[in-house]
């Protein structure tokens, strides 16, 4: 099992090294073409990893698939493990879309130059890996020891989904930015100007944080807040830490590379909030009714969950496209028409 974790972390380290050391060695504004190529690469890598998951869990390579999954009480065979990985990947990808929009608002408000935004997102990934790894480890232990906590997670997700319908993304960004920025300025000296790609600078013998460092802290904070919603959601699918962590990491890699193409387009997805709220509520209800769903659908439950999530996201995209074509008012990506 240790070899599996070590091998995966080495793979991610290589991907990040290629990203920063080869493709983005010099600070520049990634083009839409560059963003889409790297995104396609991360999606292809996730699919290939799903194939590895199938083979590894089917053959119990490196000790994988030998522990009963606390969520459904089954040993994860190859097919079941691969489905759980892909479902977790799609759930995390969809629930993190709103995070992309919040990051775009942070960069816009702080006036972070486009050519330095990739650097913030890159280092943000490293922080996200550490934070989410810790949360997943704690969550997996809680689910394994106290199965009833899934009911709490389910109720929390339903509540979060309902709350999401009434809180705009702009309000979320302003709420986080105000207290984080105040705290940083109270405890650290912060410059008013950017100093190229640097997070720290020395002025008159004293070290200062730059606005780029403030942006990084804000990105990390928003990722932590969104993880509080998305991490419990994946425990509706599996409590296997390896599947949970790897699906989360691939989703983060995909979204961060897609950011430069998605940040502008996502504003046209006026029913994004509604779609994500429905996804959270559906996953929450699945947790609350897990025994009934297992009895009714058996091993196909995760297939159905994946299909329903796809249907909600595609439906929201089609509804947004139709509303945009007609020029009708409706909930914007931020949650309400007047939120921007």
Description:
It is a single chain. The longest helix is centred in the middle third of the chain and has 32 residues, at 114-145. The chain contains twelve helices and two strands, in the order αααααααββααααα. Mean pLDDT is 81; it is low at 335-340. Strand 1 (200-203) and strand 2 form a beta hairpin. 43% of the residues are buried. Strands 1-2 form a two-stranded antiparallel sheet. It is globular, with a radius of gyration of 20 Å. The chain has one domain (2-25, 33-153, 171-269). With 340 residues, it is mainly α. The chain is 74% helix and 2% strand.
* Multimeric status of the protein: single chain
What's the pLDDT, averaged over the residues?
Answer: 81
Tally the helices: what do you get? 12
State the order of secondary-structure elements, H for helix, E for strand.
Answer: HHHHHHHEEHHHHH
Low-confidence stretches: 335-340
Structural category: mainly alpha
Number of strands: 2
Proportion in β-strands: under 5%
Q: What share of residues is helical?
A: over 70%
How many domains? Answer: 1
Radius of gyration equals 20 Å
What topology, given as strand order, has the largest sheet? 1-2
Major β-sheet profile? 2 strands, antiparallel
* Anisotropy-based shape: globular
Distance between the termini: 48 Å
Helix-strand layout with pairing:
Layout: H1 2-23, H2 32-59, H3 78-95, H4 97-110, H5 114-145, H6 149-166, H7 169-187, E1 200-203, E2 206-209, H8 211-234, H9 241-265, H10 272-288, H11 290-297, H12 301-326
Antiparallel strand pairs: 1-2
Helix pairs in contact: 2-3, 2-9, 3-8, 3-9, 3-12, 4-7, 4-8, 4-9, 5-8, 5-9, 6-10, 7-8, 10-12
